[in-house]
Write a structure and sequence with these properties.
The structure holds two protein chains of two kinds. In chain A, 77% of the residues lie in helices and 0% in strands. Chain A contains nine helices and no strands. In chain A, helix 1 crosses helix 4, helix 3 crosses helix 4 and helix 4 crosses helix 6. The radius of gyration of chain A is 26 Å and the shape is flat. By secondary structure, chain B is α/β, with parallel strands linked by helices. In chain B, the strands form two sheets. A six-stranded mixed beta sheet of chain B has the order 5-6-7-3-8-9, with helices on both faces. In chain B, strands 2-1-4 form a three-stranded antiparallel beta sheet, with helices on one face. The interface between A and B is medium-sized, with 29 and 36 residues.
C-alpha cells in the first residue's frame, strides 16, 4: 500500500509540473498516427486499383509491359518497406538524403516523420487491400462490367467501398500499431509522446511514475480509436431495416416490413 | 421490320486444352426471344459469357450491328452498355440500395443526370414490381426480388439486347414464377432477349427461337415447334424426354 500511495504522489507531482508536455506529446502522436494511417490507406487503395488491372494475352504489348512494370514496382515497394524496420527507414530518409545532397536537402523533421510512417503503412495496406479485393465475390465485378463499367469505375463504385468495409478491422490494427510505433521517430528527433517521457525522465530522475503516465495515455488513445472504428464499421453497414416506399398501406401488412415508426403505425390504424 | 443485331460466326472457346465451344454460328434479330437449352456443361453459359465478353472467345467473331465488336469504339465497356446481362446469382451491388443499383450505371457510364437516372430506374422498378423496395439493400431481399431488381438494373441501361444466364436456377420454386412473369412481359413488349434456361415451358411458349446445345456445339436450332415438335437428333429427343415426365 505504501508503495502505491507513493506512486500516486509521484505521478500527480510529475503531472502537475509537466502535464502540458505530455498532452502536446500525445497530440503529436495521435496526429501522426491518424494522418499517416489515412495516407497509408490511400496508398494502399491506389496500389489495389493498379495491381488488379486485368491484362490479357491479346492486349497490345505496350499495355502489357506497362502493367508488368507497375506490378513489379508495387511488389518491390511492399517488400522493401514491409521488410525493413521503420526506425531504419527514418534514418535513411532523414540522414541519407543530406549525406548525398548536402545539409540543404535535409527534410523537415515533422515532414520526414509523416512521410516515413505513411509510406510504411502504405506497404502494409497495399497487401491488406489486395486481400480485401480478393475476398469480394467475383460476381460483383461481373455485375459492374456487365453494365459497361471500366476497371476504374468498377473499383471505385463497387469493389473498393465493399473492400473498405471488410478491411476496417485491419485499418484499426494499423492505426493502433502506428500510435505505439511512431515512438521510434525519436531517432530523427520528432518529439511525440515517448520522446516527452525520455526528456522528463532525464530532467527529473523519476523513471517509473512517468512510465505509468505514458502507459495510461497510450492505452486511452488506442481504446478510443478502436471504439471509433467500431462505430464507423456499424455506420458503413447502414440501417438493419428499410422503409417500404409506397402509399399503399396494405403493403405494410405484408410481413415484409420490419420497422414502422410508432406514430406512423397509429396513422394506419386510424 | 427485324434486322440482325448480333451475329456469331465460327466462335470457339478453349479453357486450356479443353474445348468448351466448337464452331458456334447463330444470329439474333430485333425482337427475337431466343432460348438456349441443353444439359449442364454443354457450354450454354460460356456461350452467353463470350457474347458479353466476360470470357474472351478463343477464335471466331461476334458482329454487333455491322462491325466486329473488337473494333467498337470504347472497347468492351462501350459494347456492354448495349448488351445487358442478368446473372444466375443476381450480382447486385451489395453496397448500394435497390434504387442506387439501378442508377449507378446510368450516372457513371451513360453520364445521365441524377434526376433522369432516377426516373428511368423507377420506371423499370415499377415494371418489375420492386418500386416499394427502393430503400432496401440486396441482403434484405429474397432471391426472386433480387432477380427482378437485377432485370430492372439491366433494363435501365436501355440495352438493345438482354442476356439471361439461367435467371431462375438459383431460386426457390415458388419464386421462379415471379421472375418468369417479368420475362414474359418483356418478351411481349418486343424486348430482344437471349435466354439460357432450364425452364422448358418458357422456351416452348415464350421464345420464337430455340437453340439446343450439346457438348459445346449447336446441335439443333429453329422455332420452338421445330425443336420441340420434331427434333432431328437422338440427343435432342433424349434431352427433351427427360423434361416431359
Amino acid at each position: 500500500m505504501d508503495r502505491i500511495s507513493q506512486l500516486l504522489n509521484d505521478v500527480s507531482a510529475t503531472l502537475s509540473s509537466s502535464y502540458m508536455q505530455y498532452l502536446v506529446g500525445a497530440g503529436k502522436t495521435i496526429l501522426l498516427a491518424v494522418i499517416a494511417t489515412a495516407v497509408g490507406c490511400i496508398i494502399g487503395l491506389a496500389c489495389g486499383i493498379l495491381q488488379t488491372i486485368p491484362s490479357e494475352k491479346d492486349d497490345n504489348p505496350v499495355k502489357r509491359a506497362v502493367l508488368f512494370v507497375i506490378r513489379a514496382i508495387i511488389r518491390i515497394y511492399v517488400e522493401v518497406f514491409r521488410g525493413t524496420p521503420m526506425i531504419l527507414q527514418a534514418v535513411f530518409i532523414y540522414f541519407g538524403i543530406p549525406y548525398f545532397f548536402g545539409n540543404g536537402a535535409r527534410l523537415d523533421i515533422t515532414f520526414a516523420a509523416y512521410l516515413v510512417v505513411s509510406i510504411n503503412t502504405g506497404a502494409y495496406m497495399a497487401e491488406t487491400v489486395r486481400g480485401g479485393i480478393l475476398s469480394i465475390d467475383p460476381g460483383q465485378t461481373e455485375g459492374a462490367k456487365a453494365i459497361g463499367m471500366n476497371h476504374f469505375k468498377t473499383m471505385t463504385s463497387v469493389i473498393l467501398p465493399q473492400t473498405i468495409r471488410n478491411i476496417i478491422p485491419q485499418i484499426g490494427n494499423n492505426l493502433i500499431i502506428n500510435i505505439k510505433d511512431t515512438s521510434v521517430m525519436f531517432i530523427i528527433g520528432y518529439t511525440e509522446l515517448f520522446a516527452v517521457h525520455k526528456a522528463i525522465v532525464g530532467a527529473k530522475f523519476i523513471y517509473f511514475p512517468s512510465a505509468v503516465i505514458e502507459m495510461a495515455m497510450y492505452l486511452c488513445m488506442t481504446v478510443i480509436c478502436s471504439v471509433l472504428l467500431r462505430f464507423w464499421e456499424k455506420k458503413l453497414d447502414g440501417p438493419q431495416n428499410f422503409d417500404i416506399a409506397t402509399t399503399d398501406t396494405l403493403a405494410l401488412t405484408s410481413g415484409m416490413n420490419t420497422y414502422i415508426k410508432k406514430n406512423k403505425r397509429e396513422d394506419i390504424h386510424r | 421490320m427485324s434486322e440482325t443485331i448480333l451475329e456469331i460466326n465460327h466462335l470457339s472457346k478453349f479453357f486450356g486444352k479443353h474445348e468448351v465451344l466448337t464452331d458456334i454460328d447463330f444470329s439474333v434479330d430485333t425482337g427475337d426471344v431466343t432460348s438456349i437449352i441443353g444439359a449442364s456443361g454443354s457450354g450454354k453459359s460460356t456461350l452467353l459469357r463470350c457474347i458479353n465478353l466476360l470470357e474472351t472467345p478463343t477464335s471466331g467473331e461476334i458482329i454487333y450491328r455491322g462491325p466486329n465488336i473488337k473494333k467498337i469504339k470504347g472497347g468492351a465497356p462501350a459494347y456492354r452498355t448495349k448488351v445487358g446481362m442478368v446473372f444466375q446469382s443476381f450480382n447486385l451491388f451489395n453496397n448500394m440500395t435497390v434504387l442506387k443499383n439501378c442508377m449507378v450505371g446510368q450516372t457513371k457510364v451513360l453520364h445521365r443526370s441524377k434526376e433522369e437516372a432516377k426516373k428511368e430506374a423507377m420506371k423499370y422498378l415499377e415494371k418489375v414490381g420492386m418500386a416499394p423496395y427502393i430503400n432496401a439493400k440486396p441482403r434484405q431481399l429474397s432471391g426472386g426480388q433480387k432477380q427482378r431488381v437485377a432485370i430492372a438494373r439491366a433494363l435501365a441501361m436501355n440495352p438493345d439486347i438482354l442476356l439471361f444466364d439461367e435467371p431462375t436456377s438459383a431460386l426457390d420454386p415458388e419464386m421462379v414464377g415471379e421472375v418468369l412473369n417479368v420475362m414474359r412481359t418483356l418478351a411481349k413488349e418486343g424486348t430482344t432477349m437471349l435466354v439460357v434456361t432450364h425452364e422448358m415451358a418458357f422456351a416452348r411458349d415464350v421464345s420464337n427461337k430455340v437453340v439446343y446445345m450439346n457438348g459445346g456445339v449447336i446441335l439443333e436450332q429453329g422455332t420452338p415447334e421445330e425443336v420441340f415438335g420434331n427434333p432431328q437428333h437422338k440427343e435432342t429427343v433424349d434431352f427433351l424426354a427427360r423434361f416431359r415426365n
